Amino acid sequence: MAVNLDLRKLQDIVNENEFKKLYQNGLAYAEEIEKDSSIGFTELPETLEHVNKAKEIADKLPENVDTLLVLGIGGSALGAKMVRDAFQNNLTKKLIILDNVDPETIYSVASSMNPEKTVINVISKSGTTVEPISQFKFFFNLFEKELGEAETLKRIVITTDREKGVLRKLADEKGILSMEVPANVGGRFSVLTPVGIFPLQYCGIDTKSLVNGALNEKKEGADKSVKGAVLDYLFFNKGKNIKVMFIYSDNLYRFGEWYLQLFAESLGKRFDRDGNEVKVGATGVLAKGVTDQHSQVQLYKEGPEDKFFAFFKIKNKKDILIPDSLSEYKELSYLNGKTFSKLMDAECEGTMQALENDGKPLILYEIDELSIENMGRLIYLFELQTAICGYLYNINPFDQPGVEEGKIIAKRLLGYN
Ligand code: PA5
């Protein structure tokens, strides 16, 4: 199996009957979610529509481009960032994703930019989010000053709602190339729409394999997503308020950032579907293996019993041998002939066992290799898992009223009515 879920020693911790009952509920929810046409993310693995559209748009852009500047935030940025950073070596263009309004970063990006050789992809489903809109105003001005309006407009791609928002108006009125975010797919579930597909494909990533991976995961069935969702639900209800996502791979680390957003925005909710105040949702924490063994594990081993753990490791990695050097130092000889992969795996196993020895709940995702296809699998697995967990909580995993409120207040503070 390309992504394997190992429940390790959980049978000693989790009540079997309780788990079985919730598992059946979870399976039913998975079916309901996959059949519901108002929930769009489950349909995305079945279509190459967005891959084809991205090619159509790319063919209309100037030829001498070497950089894509993406302006977007949250769900409009994290998916592309995750795939870009996992497959840096596959990129054929520089892919800059600006998801903050820190003027120092904007200044540094702007000062090294060659507008002639750059395309801007502004991404906002709502078309009203202040961060990408303000960045767009800035870069539009920068490009216009250097290239004039006509050449600037040729170097812009807008990704937004089919009808709503100022970006759609702009695309229509100024004849800017544009793509649609399907109305039934929310930001954090949108990596397989033009939101993620266009920037990745334009910069050389094989997005067909990404979509295909998601499809293969979907075809394999919901078992892993359901098990993960049941455990997320169960542990939270047993007072484990913190889920630590321990990722033993530098290249997969940004997957953790993408998953953290999906997990937090989808499941952190005040009210259930019946209007009762429930205040659910565990807090996700990201840790990198082996690095954070030396910064966080002390707390995890000996601190409060409020955590459950999901470990992620890559089975087959490019490897390097630790040579038989410094042979006069016998105390170093235990490393002779070992590889860094073996070392990393031993450290991962050591950390898991050390936590298990204290009865900490822990599961392991083993990915057979870090391929684009397996990234597609992870995307679908965790999107479905998150949605199922929301149904177990009886909350709506697809809205984000807490984020919306902050957006509205910030705009009001800037004088918007
Ligand atoms: O997941 C979400 O819905 C959010 O994180 C949004 O993606 C984020 O707030 C950006 O919204 P928009 O794409 O409308 O600019």
Q: Can you put this structure into words, describing what you see?
A:
By secondary structure, the protein is an alpha/beta fold. The chain folds into 2 domains: 3-35 and 220-402, Glucose-6-phosphate isomerase like protein, domain 1 (Rossmann fold), CATH 3.40.50.10490; 40-208, Rossmann fold. The protein is built from 15 helices and 12 strands. The protein has helices spanning 16-35, 49-59, 78-86, 103-111, 130-147, 149-154, 166-174, 194-202, 207-220, 223-237, 253-267, 297-302, 340-356, 372-393, 401-413, and strands at residues 3-6, 67-71, 94-98, 118-124, 156-160, 177-180, 242-248, 269-271, 277-280, 283-288, 307-316, 362-369. The protein has a 5-stranded mixed beta sheet with strand order 1-12-11-7-10, with helices on both faces. Helix 13 links the parallel strand 11 (307-316) and strand 12 (362-369). Helix 9 crosses helix 14 (372-393). The longest helix has 22 residues, at 372-393. It is globular and about 65 Å long. The relative contact order is 0.16. The model has no long low-confidence stretch (mean pLDDT 96). The structure holds 5-phosphoarabinonic acid. Residues 73-76, 124-126, 129, 132, 186-188, 265, 400, 403 line the site of 5-phosphoarabinonic acid.
Which regions have little confidence, pLDDT < 50, spanning 5+ residues? none
* Coarse morphology: globular
Count of helical segments?
A: 15
In round numbers, the mean pLDDT is 96
Q: What class, by secondary structure content?
A: alpha/beta
The CATH architecture of the largest domain: 3-Layer(aba) Sandwich
Determine the N-to-C terminus distance. Answer: 53 Å
Order of helices and strands: EHHEHEHEHHEHEHHHEHEEEHEHEHH
Question: β content, as a range?
Answer: 15-25%
CATH topology of the largest domain: Rossmann fold
